[in-house]
Write a structure and sequence with these properties.
Layout (H helix, E strand, L loop, with lengths): L7 H9 L5 H7 L8 H17 L1 H5 L8 H6 L3 H8 L6 E4 L6 H7 L4 E5 L3 H13 L5 E4 L3 H8 L5 E4 L2 E2 L13 E2 L2 H8 L5 E6 L5 H7 L3 E9 L2 E10 L7 E7 L4 E7 L15 E5 L1 H6 L2 H8 L2 E2 L7 E3 L7 E11 L2 H7 L6 E4 L6 H8 L7 E7 L5 E8 L1
Parallel strand pairs: 1-2, 1-4, 2-3, 4-7, 8-10, 16-17
Antiparallel strand pairs: 5-6, 7-9, 8-9, 10-11, 12-14, 12-15, 13-14, 15-18, 17-18
Helix pairs in contact: 6-7
Amino acid sequence: MNKHILNTEPQDFINQNLNADIAKLIFKGSPFKNITVQELVEQIEAKKKAMHKLPTWFATENIYYPNKLNIEQTSSETTANYKANLISGETIIDLTGGFGVDALAFANAFKQVTHCEIDSKLSSIAKHNFKALNIQNINTINDDGVGFLKRKKQQFDCINIDPSRRNDVKGKVFLLEDCEPNVPENLSTLFNFSDNIMVKVSPMLDITSAISELNFVKEIHVVAIQNEVKELLFILEKGFKSNIKIKTVNIKKETIESFDSSWLKNNIPAQLSEPLTYLYEPNSAILKAGLFNEVSHQLKVFKLNTNSHLYTSNNLILFPGRRFKIINKVSYNLKEIKKALVSKQANITTRNFPETVAQIRKKTKLKEGGDHYLFFTKDVNDNHIVLICEKV
């Protein structure tokens, strides 16, 4: 951590060059004696990424940023605040504190937060930033979180842990045991120091596999922002043996879409129907949670096909996802599609369909955009159909 970066002139330079051409900056070199141009660029790139993801940090003076990869991998303020509202108590330890975004959110919900980070540089950065943010109730520890717990033997009201995927499983389907720290291996130890554990994992993780690796899972939260799943959260409570709640949330600019159920509440298939007046497409959090039948049962809507995950009804309802009015239904036939469309523009979505959007655009010569939404899917009899819709 180069503290010269925090001086007034370098800070002004960083703020003035947030939208500058990075290649040109590197070519010019650093205007400051004790700061390299690479260090300046690192601050500029990371701060620019923080503008929307971490607005509190961005708006605070003298924040020191890690490299942009750390910023990309950290929680957003939005998801951190969501997590902090799920748990409560007086003391919490974050075993994988990182840049400290989650810890800051916990500081507003707990009297005392312990932030553990094994990377000494990142730990120093977090400590400095908490001071810049005027946060008094976070204790930063430069140590392996699990090791610190074992040595300290201190009780906490809650433990937060965000294991990262090991490099040797990058790009593969992975399990919790493929992450560092290895949560399943250390779970009994963690429960010696708290009755409540929150595990944050990548949305790439399979939910069923994670449940089988963990004990005492009480709740699962699938968190999406603007219809992109960002985090899976597993809340564990020592001794819990009842039904697991699964909660999906899609945080949008003006609204929050929520849909809850019990894990594997029932496997009764959804009722199917031919397309009716309205079409519904569930948000990405519901799709990740696999609550396909529950959507049908709870909201009284029909599925178009067992494997399509599109729904229909005659009455317009509130729905956690996109809603459309069906204007026309045609077979997957180029002549029929062109005859049914006045415009040469359309938004295309495929569900349970053998061709990609790119392949369909090439065949139909339809440009992207416009007011029409085309869904290429299958009906109840597995026939390929195209639903021409308008957004509600």
